[in-house]
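Subject: Sanity check before I submit

Could someone independently write out the structure tokens for this chain? I want to compare against mine line by line before I put it in a report. The sequence has 260 residues.
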Amino acid sequence: MASAYDTTDVPAPRPVSGEVVIRMAGVQKWYDSFHVLKDIELEVHKGERIVICGPSGSGKSTLIRCINQLEKHQKGTITVNGVTIDAHHRHLDQVRRDVGMVQFNLFPHLTVVENCMLAPMRVRGTSKQEARDIAMKYLARVRIPEQADKYPGQLSGGQQQRVAIARSLCMNPKVMLFDEPTSALDPEMVKEVLDTMIGLAEDGMTMLCVTHEMGFAKSVADRVIFMDRGEIVEQATPAEFFTNPRSERTRNFLGQILTH
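---
Independent answer below. Compare away.
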């Protein structure tokens, strides 16, 4: 798959905080009889940038959606900033305040700025003026403040995705989740969205991103996780992952994706 980023040079590993902000322990999930997540063990550190990749149906999107409980797991525990969600799914609201999920589903009847104002006003009780100020701050952060009073249908796909990122930032999350953020975009729009994500990473945001953009993984990730058949098969720094994958399943995946 073509990427907007060079895949030849891998930066030296960054020092990562010792503070664990997400811990998944023995997490399992089924869709009826299909075992989609199998005994997931994962720790994510503050400020860490993780890219999750793998073939279709491997469980990678389900994994990140379980973190903020858009998907409910059946066994194991998930802890976010010290708050634990078990199989009874208590404390959901508290966890969701700290975890932003970038979803490509803007409300078409609301303007860009109104899309961004909605959650702070409804969830946090923020005043309309303060919510607008926050929204404009983050629209400027993703470099589209001039689009504030337009409707989503008037924007390009890349602009809409940047609005979706700004909307998540308006809730001041401690963690950002991205599920294939460039998959619905035309190739010329991919780079503008990845550039926005790189900016967030450079600001120190803790990020988990499901993507096939291997150039982005090499350029930005602290750790690359490969999933297959509901399992974390391998995880390593980008340098190790791309130059010396240990698993045959990982080698097969990279052989397919890096030659397309």
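---
OP: Matches mine. For the report I'm noting this point. Residues 1-7 have pLDDT under 50 and may be disordered.
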